[in-house]
Write a structure and sequence with these properties.
- By secondary structure, the protein is α+β, with helices and mostly antiparallel strands.
- It has one domain (10-218).
- Helices cover 41% and strands 24% of the residues.
- The strands form two sheets. The chain has a seven-stranded antiparallel β-sheet, with helices on both faces. A two-stranded parallel ribbon has the order 8-9.
- The protein is extended.
């Protein structure tokens, strides 16, 4: 009898500890979530200004499945978000776009800037990656590789899609401005970035071009 009562008491205590722990986890999550979101938003803002040279501010434009600009809804993760990047005079300097694709280890999340005047990608930054340290992570650190995206030609054709899709070539074999020169020893990760950019520009360049008048109107241009 005493043994049964002791076991029951232990179960009640352990259950109570579990309930309290669960409540604490929820409370901590609710407290830290706004902070995490704020930090992510600030980091994204910094990245936008980095991938669009000359920009000092940005504005979010949310595009629905029909290509129409709609009011921003943070909870709507399905719609495309374009970030108009503006200089100090309020002129549109370019458009930043988030894109994702499979890398060697896991999904790679990038942000790139497109300049409609240059008709080129003018900056790229890796936002999240789990590529192999010392090899695949060079897509973030290798200066020569990052220079691929300072003026990567993405000229729209008649249908708005790139005339020449972004492609990867081996190190030292670049002959055309729409080619990405791979990092020696990190070919898979290099190809992943090229593939992400090719897929994103093919799908989103027409939307970007259609949204430019709205972005310029918002800026008073």
């Amino acid at each position: 009898m005493n043994q049964t009562a002791g076991s029951l008491r232990m179960i009640i205590v352990m259950g109570g500890i579990g309930v309290i722990s669960g409540i604490l986890i929820v409370l901590v999550y609710q407290y830290t979530l706004p902070i995490i979101k704020r930090n992510r938003a600030e980091a994204l803002q910094t990245s936008i200004l980095r991938v669009v040279p000359g920009a000092t501010s940005s504005k979010i434009f949310q595009i629905d499945s029909s290509g129409t600009v709609v009011p921003f809804n943070e909870k709507d993760e399905r719609s495309l978000r374009l970030y108009g990047a503006y200089n100090a005079a309020g002129q549109l300097k370019g458009v930043a776009v988030e894109a994702r694709g499979q890398g060697f280890q896991d999904v790679i999340h990038i942000l790139y800037g497109y300049d409609p005047e240059q008709q080129a990608v003018v900056g790229m930054q890796v936002l999240e990656s789990r590529e192999t340290p010392g090899l695949g992570d060079k897509i973030e650190k290798d200066a020569d590789f990052v220079r691929n995206f300072e003026a990567l030609s993405v000229v729209p054709g008649d249908d708005g899609r790139p005339e020449h899709p972004v492609t990867m070539v081996k190190n030292g074999k670049k002959t055309d401005p729409w080619q990405v020169e791979a990092i020696t020893g990190a070919t898979i990760s290099s190809r992943a970035i090229a593939n992400i950019l090719r897929a994103s520009t093919d799908q989103n360049l027409p939307v970007i071009l259609n949204t430019l008048p709205h972005m310029r109107t918002e800026a008073g241009q």
